[in-house]
Design goal:
- This protein is α/β, with parallel strands linked by helices.
- The protein contains 11 helices and 13 strands.
- It has 3 domains: 116 residues, Periplasmic binding protein-like II (D-Maltodextrin-Binding Protein, domain 2); 81 residues, D-Maltodextrin-Binding Protein, domain 2; 72 residues, 2-Layer Sandwich (Double Stranded RNA Binding Domain), CATH 3.30.160.40.
- The strands form 3 sheets. A 5-stranded mixed beta sheet has the order 2-1-3-10-4, sandwiched between helices.
- Helix 9 runs parallel beside helix 10.
Length: 308
Amino acid sequence: MNTLKSILIGTRGSKLALWQSNIVKQAIEEKFPNISVRLEIIQTTGDKILDVALSKIGDKNLFTKEIEQAMLENRVDIAVHSLKDLPTELPQGLCIGAVLPRAECRDALVSNNGIQLHELNSNHIIGTSSLRRKAQLLAYNPHLHIEDVRGNIDTRLQKLASGQYDALIMAAAGLQRLGYEDYITEIIDPIVMLPAVSQGIIGVECREADVEVCEVLQAIHDDYTWNMALAERTFLKQMNGGCQLPLGCFTQVNNSTIEINATILSVDGTKKLQFSQSGHITKAETLAMQLAQTFYDAGAQDILNEIR
């Protein structure tokens, strides 16, 4: 019998981070009404540095380090993340205790005057700080004018409205979660832009030794989503990548079959490798490793060396 009385969630302070943490809070309280769940806001390095492109300040633990440190010091019990921000190598003693059902995983175009992706040209300024999005945009149309943009969702939308940008590329899930779906001009087809690894998935991190906390998290865990996350995170790990690598991955599950589609590009979009691997869902990790080997066999290391 679980004897936990309370759980303290470590979270970033952005509107989206708090939304996600409150969803986890509600899920736990619905399953365990006797457990009191509270939120503790922790500022991360990524929250403090807002005037430099993410790709230029490195991405290892950029949005997670301070929260993970609070867990290791027993100042909070669990951490809620956008799983795409969580490195594939976790600090010793920590693990992913649960993932929630995946939301929309694709990217969205948000533009002034309803301009569609195929209508954008060199006269338009497109905002994104993601090398993955930039590389795929340039592969789609090498004449596009792309500039970095930082800040939370509200800040970015304000910059768009002020005319600083003509269009933004953002994760559709974040916009939808905050009720900003009407801002979306177009959901971008994965044929044009594969999403980031684990995009649209909320992950909950905890201490491996906290048996009761792990039991609680298993009660809100979604296995279907985890199979996709495991495949994508395994592929990313095999490519020695982080969330700022120009790498996209899109996983689909149909009954007992899982299909992993991935791409790796040069930053300017002129070099692009794209392959897929499918098989039984129980072999997700093995399939991801096989897919990574396919990329290496095709010369992916040369592209990775250029980026690094």
